Amino acid sequence: MKPARASERARLHELAHLCGVETTHRDYRTRRPKAVGDETLVAVLRAVGVELGSLADVGRAVSEQRRARWQRHLEPVSVAWEGRAGSIPLRLPAAGSAGRLEAELNLEGGETIRWFADVAGLPVEERGQVGRERYVARRLPLPPLPLGYHQLRLGVARKEYQALILAAPREAFAAPGRDRSWGLFLPLYSLCRKRSWGAGDFSDLDAFSQWMARQGGQPVGTLPLLAAFLDEPFEPSPYSPASRLFWNEFYVDVTQSPELARCGPARRMLNSAEFQRELEALRAAPLVDYRRGIALKRRALEPLAEEFFLRRAKPAAFKRFLEGHPGVEDYARFRAAVERRRAPWPEWPARLRAANVKPGDYDEAARRYHVYAQWLAYLQLEEFSARAARRGQGLYLDLPLGVHAEGYDVWRYREAFALAADGGAPPDPVWTTGQNWGFAPLHPERIREQGYAYFIACLRHQLRHAALLRVDHFMGFHRLFWIPQGTAEGAGAYVRYRAEEFYAILCLESHRHRAAIVGENLGDVPAYVNAAMRRHNIQQMFVIQYELESDLQRAFKSATAESVAGLNTHDMPPFAAWWEGEDIDDRLRLGLITPAGARKEYDERAKRKSFLARYLRRRGWLAPHPNALGNRGGRAGWRGRLGAGLGRAASDAAGVMRACTRYLAAGPARAVVLNLEDFWGETAPQNVPGTVAQRPNWRRKARYTLEALSRRRSVRALLREVNRLRRRRP
Fold first, then answer.
1. How far apart are alpha carbons 484 and 493 in whole angstroms?
2. How would residue 28 be classed by pLDDT, with cut points 50, 70 and 90?
3. Beta strands in 511-627 (DSSP E)
4. What is the pLDDT of residue 274?
5. pLDDT tens per residue, range 571-599
6. Rounded to an integer, what distance in angstroms lies between the CA atom of residue 522 and that of residue 533?
7. Are strands 148-156 and 159-168 parallel, antiparallel or unpaired?
């Protein structure tokens, strides 16, 4: 594309503004705004849905966008905070802005409110003109409303307009009496007992929860438990699920199936020598083997599914399950069709791509298997949630930002997604070329036109069981970096969303499910995002390692009563590895940083360690050691500086980790969620961002089984201290 003239660039930027596309983003090197290139801007606008052949089309596109705005007579969604009376804009042609208006509000509870108004008497908010057409925007008052989702219908000049009204509480739910709770985090696949099938399952999660309850812990934290492709295509990452609307049957405990007692073929299979040998091989494997694990579990589940569907009388709970999950049959047909065709849906024939799957397009046994697997997952999570609630506990679940591009959700709800772009992030100090996360972002306007139905369904699926829900990349409710497909990782632009509408849905659903919302706000997050989170009582994250790596000057200054605090996250090295700089070593080996970059990071890490040790000593959490003993056996050179001059206590990762843990436990954070693996000095990460085949991401088992863990006195002693400090007012 030829370079734009100044006048063309001005029009292009006007078009971007009309479409919610930002024309700059901050350059991490200069900390100043950096202009998005014209070519990139055009590509992002095309991904949004603007028809642009070249810069010569920009003028026409601007006029079309202006006209489309005025011809959107009602915004498809409006918010009424606390249900209080307000007003919404009504846009009409100037020539037709008179006469009687008929309004009808169909409330979620089934009631209807009707009223009439004189259009000419409504207050004028704005006037506009596109070409020869003139328009006027007026404000239509709304009556007070109960909280909920309400449908507004307007009749003006023999035309009808519709909108969704979100009457929502201004703040998200906060459970009374749950302040100063503490919990533990461990990926469920990593959590094993002697009876496990080579990875944790829902029964193991319950056993872990019981053990935590005996120590006084409440939130049980784990990675997303959502549906995944574990055959072909193969994608074990919990942050690239096959669907955000269904569970991962990998975590079902086959031995708890109600059908097992009367299914002879399944019992004989489970007791066979061949099956037991395979089971022992999975248990002995150092890493979780998803392919073998799901294949073995499916061999047991398929005859159980046949047994279940042969029964004429199904349990009443199954009927309730189908009513509460009306898409489960459709999901099962999709998964069965994927298995039949052994190809992703974009490669299917046109009819199947159009989400028109019929009997004969899949194997019926495979469909029944997927329905049954979801039914078992539903049963086991329902039972776990009930038992955990009786213990005063709850799940700390995680809603991923994206979904697998070849998964069910994009296939079924593709109008909600922008398929010509990927979500990602611009260049930053760690990812100097930017990041491409490989999933299609939600389209900011089409999801509004659909009344946010897909997003609400995703939320409800998690909130049925979550006492605390972490929302990944919370800034994405305000803006998300779009990378047009076929361009470089860093070549993209931010696209804005209607944040107020997301907040309204979050607040409403959190109250309905009595669950708190946690926003992942780590990274380069604009101040207005954090301010909005505080305004709506969305709990923020405070992560010690991130605070140190992000901005040394403000470390530990933001662990507030509205935060969920911890040492690290699943995308960070465990504390011991961070302390020893092993993550820097690993990134150097992987070629993600240069030797010069590694030297700089080692030096910076030494400064941060020194700062941390001094900070903890001054506050009495780390015993003072005036005689600096230097590095305790670390290798010379760059790494030698990591422990130099800190004293023996400060250069002891375990000692500093315990001091940090006590510091957080004594602090004001609403909840403290600790990575259990830090308690024994684990150095291997669960995930190394930027790697796929190079590292065993999402596959590492915990070093200790739950039985062995429960016998570790050092773990129990630290948990007793955490529990004591959390019960004490700061």
1. 9
2. confident
3. 516-519, 539-543, 563-566
4. 97
5. 999 999 999 999 999 989 988 888 998 99
6. 13
7. antiparallel
Q: What is the total residue count of the chain? A: 730
Domains of the chain, start order: 6-68 (no CATH), 83-168 (2.60.40), 252-385 (no CATH)
Sign, Cα dihedral of 455, 456, 457, 463: positive
Residue 13 in tokens: 């930027």
> CA-to-CA distance for 396 and 400, rounded, in angstroms?
13
* DSSP three-state, residue 112: strand
- 88 token code pair: 């919404």
Q: Could you give the CA distance from residue 396 to residue 183 in angstroms, rounded to a whole number?
A: 9
CA angle 75, 499, 48 (to 5 degrees): 70
700 DSSP 8-state letter: B
Q: What is the pTM of this model?
A: 0.94
H/E segment holding residue 234: strand 234-235
223 vs 239: CA distance, rounded Å:
9
* pLDDT tens, position by position, 489-504: 789 999 999 999 999 9
Residue type present at position 116: F
The distance of Cα 185 from the centroid of its chain, to the nearest Å, equals: 16
pLDDT value for 429: 74
Single-letter amino acid code for the residue at 274: E
Q: Which residue has the tokens 């459970």?
A: 175
**Model pLDDT, residue 692:** 86
Secondary structure class of 347 (helix, strand, coil): helix
Exposure of 623 in the CB half-sphere (CA atoms within 13 A)? 7
Contact status, residue 212 vs residue 554, Cβ threshold 8 Å: no
CA distance 367 to 698: 27
Phi-psi label, residue 187: left if phi above 0, alpha if psi -120 to 50, beta otherwise: beta
pLDDT tens by residue, 533-560: 999 999 999 999 988 876 666 556 667 8
Nearest to 652 by CA among 672, 630, 626: 630
Answer for the pair 674, 184: CB distance below 8 angstroms, yes or no.
Answer: yes
Residue 132, exposed/middle/buried by CB under 10 A (0-12, 13-18, 19+)? exposed
Provide the Cα torsion 300, 306, 308, 313; round to 10°: -170
> What DSSP element (H or E) covers 387?
helix 364-390
Looking up tokens 């979100």, which residue turns up?
A: 166
- Could you give the CA distance from residue 264 to residue 352 in angstroms, rounded to a whole number? 37
Cis bond before residue 626 (omega within 30° of 0)? no
- Tokens 């086959």 sit on residue: 254
- In this structure, are residues 116 and 100 in contact, taking their beta carbons and an 8 Å threshold? yes
Q: Are 718 and 674 in contact (CB under 8 A)?
A: no
Confidence band of 310 (pLDDT split at 50, 70, 90)? very high
